[in-house]
C-alpha cells in the first residue's frame, strides 16, 4: 500500500484500486440516484424533499470524492457520462444491499433469522415437538432448527460445551450448575401393561400391585433424576422393582411392554398415544402420584433461541394444548 496526496493505492489480485481517505456515505448515493433518474436537479430536489442548491453542491462533492465526472450539465439538459451510467447501476445495487443489511440485522435481533440447535427427550417426538415446529416455522421461516434427540444428561453436557442452544428435558436434573431450568408442563406417570395382562381388568392399579412384576425401566445414567423419582415411589410403596430390560428409547419400552416382556411406568400423555398396543391404568396408593415434568434448559439465549423459548411457552399455555 502506498499513499499519494488524498488517495490510498491498494493492489489486490492484480488490480489497482484508488480510494479516497473519506468514504462516500449512502446519502450522497441516494442524491445522485435521484438526479441520475430524473436528469433534472429541480425534480430530484423535490423527490428528496430538499432545495436545489445543496443538491448541486452534494453532486459536485461526490464527483470530487470519486475523481470523475458523473454528469454533463448544460443550460438545456443534464446527461450522464459513461462513468455516471456505471455508477448509477452500482449505486442502486449498493443502496439495495444496504437496505437488505439493515432489514436482516433487524430480523436477526428479533430472532427471525439464524440457527437454533435444539435437543429434546424422545417422549415429545409425537406430541409437543411436531406442533412446536409447525407453529414456529410458520412465524419464522428463515430460522434453521437443528434437532437432536438426547437424554437429560447429554443435553446438559451439550449446553455447557456450547454444542446446543436449547433443550427440552425431564425434571429433576442433577447438578444443573450454570444451566437455566424453566419448567414447562407437568404430567403424571401411569402404569402400562400388555393387553392380556391380568391387572388390565382393573380400572386403577396400586403401585404395590406391580411389586412382583418384571419391570422395563431405562438405565439410571439416561435420566438419573427421573430414575431416582421412580425408585423412590416404589420404595414408598414398599418394594424395589425387578428390572429385566433397560431400553433408552420410550418407543422401545412401549414395544417391549406390548410384547409381554414386562410392565413399565410412562407419562400419561405419551401412553395415551399408543392405542391398540398397551393397556394404560392410573396409579393409586402409596408412592403416587409420580410427577413427570418437562422443562426448558439453556445457558444463554440468542435472539432466535429466545423466540423459540417464547413460542414454546405460548404453546404449552394455550387452552387447546394437549401434550
Unreliable sequence segments: 1-21
The CATH topology of the largest domain is given as Arc Repressor Mutant, subunit A
**Shape call:** rod-shaped
SS-based class: alpha/beta
Mean pLDDT: 88
* Residues in helix, %: 25-40%
Main β sheet profile: 8 strands, mixed
What's a concise summary of this model?
With 323 residues, the protein is α/β, with parallel strands linked by helices. Helix content is 39%, strand content 26%.
What does this structure look like?
- This protein has 323 residues and is α/β, with parallel strands linked by helices.
- The chain folds into three domains: 2-109, Arc Repressor Mutant, subunit A, CATH 1.10.10.10; 113-185 and 293-316, Periplasmic binding protein-like II (D-Maltodextrin-Binding Protein, domain 2, 3-Layer(aba) Sandwich), CATH 3.40.190; 186-291, 3-Layer(aba) Sandwich (D-Maltodextrin-Binding Protein, domain 2).
- The chain is built from ten helices and 15 strands.
- Helix 5 (128-139) crosses helix 10 (303-316).
- The model is unreliable at 1-21 (pLDDT under 50).
Topology overview:
Elements: E1 2-4, E2 7-12, E3 15-20, H1 26-38, H2 41-48, H3 52-66, E4 71-73, E5 78-80, H4 82-109, E6 113-120, H5 128-139, E7 142-149, H6 152-160, E8 166-171, E9 180-193, E10 204-206, E11 214-216, H7 224-236, E12 242-245, H8 250-258, E13 264-267, H9 268-271, E14 279-284, E15 291-298, H10 303-316
Parallel strand pairs: 6-7, 6-8, 10-14, 11-12
Antiparallel strand pairs: 1-2, 2-3, 4-5, 8-15, 9-13, 9-14, 9-15
Helix pairs in contact: 1-2, 1-3, 1-4, 5-10
Amino acid at each position: 500500500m502506498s499513499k499519494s496526496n488524498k488517495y490510498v493505492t491498494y493492489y489486490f489480485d492484480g488490480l489497482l484500486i484508488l480510494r479516497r481517505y473519506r468514504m462516500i456515505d449512502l446519502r450522497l448515493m441516494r442524491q445522485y440516484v435521484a438526479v441520475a433518474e430524473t436528469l433534472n436537479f429541480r425534480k430530484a430536489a423535490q423527490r428528496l424533499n430538499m432545495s436545489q442548491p445543496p443538491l448541486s453542491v452534494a453532486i459536485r462533492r461526490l464527483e470530487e470524492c470519486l475523481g470523475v465526472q458523473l454528469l454533463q450539465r448544460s443550460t438545456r439538459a443534464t446527461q450522464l457520462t459513461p462513468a455516471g451510467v456505471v455508477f448509477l447501476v452500482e449505486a442502486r445495487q449498493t443502496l439495495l444491499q444496504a437496505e437488505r443489511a439493515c432489514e436482516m440485522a433487524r430480523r436477526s435481533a428479533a430472532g427471525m433469522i439464524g440457527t437454533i440447535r435444539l435437543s429434546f427427550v424422545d417422549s415429545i417426538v409425537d406430541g409437543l415437538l411436531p406442533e412446536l415446529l409447525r407453529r414456529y416455522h410458520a412465524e419464522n421461516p428463515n430460522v434453521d432448527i437443528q434437532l437432536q434427540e438426547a437424554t437429560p444428561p447429554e443435553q446438559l453436557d451439550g449446553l455447557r460445551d456450547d454444542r446446543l442452544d436449547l433443550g427440552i428435558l425431564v425434571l429433576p436434573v442433577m447438578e444443573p450448575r450454570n444451566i437455566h431450568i424453566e419448567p414447562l408442563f407437568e404430567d403424571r406417570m401411569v402404569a402400562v401393561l400388555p393387553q392380556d395382562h391380568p391387572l388390565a381388568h382393573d380400572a386403577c392399579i396400586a403401585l404395590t400391585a406391580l411389586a412382583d412384576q418384571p419391570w422395563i425401566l431405562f438405565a439410571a445414567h439416561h435420566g438419573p433424576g427421573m430414575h431416582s423419582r421412580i425408585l423412590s415411589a416404589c420404595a414408598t410403596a414398599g418394594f424395589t422393582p425387578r428390572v429385566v430390560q433397560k431400553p433408552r428409547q420410550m418407543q422401545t419400552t412401549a414395544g417391549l411392554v406390548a410384547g409381554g416382556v414386562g410392565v413399565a411406568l410412562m407419562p400419561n400423555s405419551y401412553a395415551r398415544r399408543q392405542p391398540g398396543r398397551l393397556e394404560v391404568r392410573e396409579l393409586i396408593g402409596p408412592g403416587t402420584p409420580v410427577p413427570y415434568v418437562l422443562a426448558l434448559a439453556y445457558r444463554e439465549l440468542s435472539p432466535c433461541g429466545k423466540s423459540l423459548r417464547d413460542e414454546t411457552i405460548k404453546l404449552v399455555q394455550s387452552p387447546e394444548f394437549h401434550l
